[in-house]
Every structure is written in structure tokens, then in C-alpha cells.
Amino acid sequence: MSPSKSEPKPRPAPIPDAETEPYWQAVNEGRLIVQRCTVCGNSQLYPRWRCLRCRGEVEWVDASGGGTVYSFTVIRQNFSRSFRHLIPYVVALVDLDEGPRLMTNLVGVDPDAVEIGMRVRVKFERVSEEASVPLFEPA
User: Fold this and answer.
1) For residue 6, is pLDDT > 70?
2) What is the value of pTM for the model shown?
3) What are the domain boundaries of the chain?
């Protein structure tokens, strides 16, 4: 069922592959997870089959959901129909408390009020019956 013109359109749904399937499944369950190396303890995201630091094996672990804005930009123009209705919106790089940096959208905040160093927390938005996406809002 497609949204009516008065309902907000959902963001595009992710398309999981073999490496990202556990991540997207956790997001659908309302959990943010990262990979942690079983050898050196390095945390990483986005998913890889081995640790980027030492090439050791990795496991999935729950993340706290907290982070800090590393950098951001405010999108005030977008010709993509998938995002046009969201303008203006914030695209941010968030340093998760566990270490990895994640590109995401900030929501629930005036774009002009966003600051580098701002504390944020994860929030999940359902974009289809099968999928959710992690967004961040002020902590």
C-alpha cells in the first residue's frame, strides 16, 4: 500500500546482502550492532568478513546506541524523489561510543541547531513491513 499525498513517504528501504544481513535484521528488531574483532578487540561498521586492523575473525555485538556528531551537512536541495519530501534534512557522520563512525540522518532537531560534538542516540524508523533504518536524534 503506497502512502497518500498527505502521509509522509518512507525513506528508501535497505537491500541487505550476505555481509549486511545480520546488521539489518538487528535494526529491524530495534537493536544497533557493530562488529568486534575476536583477536584485537577492534570495533567496526560497516560489515566486513574480517577485522580491518588485524584481519582477525569478527563477531556481532550490541552497541549502546549513543554517539557524537563528528561532522554534518544540511541538505536543502535534492532532486531525488526518495528524499525531496524530507528537505531540509541533516546528513551526519556519528562516532558511535564503541568507536565506529556511521553515516546517518539526524532527526528531531532543527538543522540549524546541529553542532559538531553534539551527543546523539539511535532511533529506528520503520520504512516498510520488512525494514527499518537507524537514525539519530539529540540525546
Assistant:
1) no
2) 0.89
3) 21-138
